[in-house]
Amino acid sequence: MLNTRQGSVLIADDYGMPDFTNFPVDDLSKTAAEMEQIIAGMIRKYEPRLHGVRIHFDPTPGDMHSLRFRLEAQMIDPLNRDRTVPIGVETVVTTEGKVRIDS
User: Fold this and answer.
1) How far is the C-alpha of 54 from the C-alpha of 21, rounded, in Å?
2) What is the rounded average pLDDT of the residues 11-23?
3) Whole-Å CA distances, 73 to 37, 44, 52, 70, 84
4) Which of 15-19, 34-38, 67-71, 82-86 shows the lowest per-residue confidence on average (mean pLDDT)?
């Protein structure tokens, strides 16, 4: 879902990442906080295996053209549903509007 453009799948209009290229950049901290909320809300809605979802804007020094977010959560262990496993991934939105996922 993190590398799917919102509106590009038939499952739901709000499934996937919105077009972040249209967000205002005059107040980056406000825009980043709004993006964090959007990403966290989407994950909470469409990924029930994740709990304690936290999204953090993680700017790269010297690269003001990409948006990097860090996802931290607990995932239910598929082999033992009473146990959770910590996970962490980075989502990078490039200047071309493409989304890259790094672990």
Assistant:
1) 22
2) 77
3) 14, 10, 5, 10, 9
4) 15-19
Left, alpha or beta for 100 (phi > 0: left; psi -120 to 50: alpha)?
beta
- Residue 87 pairs in a beta bridge with 73
Are 39 and 61 contacting, i.e. CB atoms less than 8 angstroms apart?
A: no
Q: Are 18 and 38 in contact (CB under 8 A)?
A: yes
For residues 19-30, average pLDDT: 67
CB-based contact 20:5 (threshold 8 Å) = no
Q: Which residue has the higher pLDDT, 6 or 93?
A: 6
C-alpha dist (Å) from residue 23 to 33, 37, 47, 48? 12, 14, 25, 28
Residue with the two structure tokens 């071309």: 96
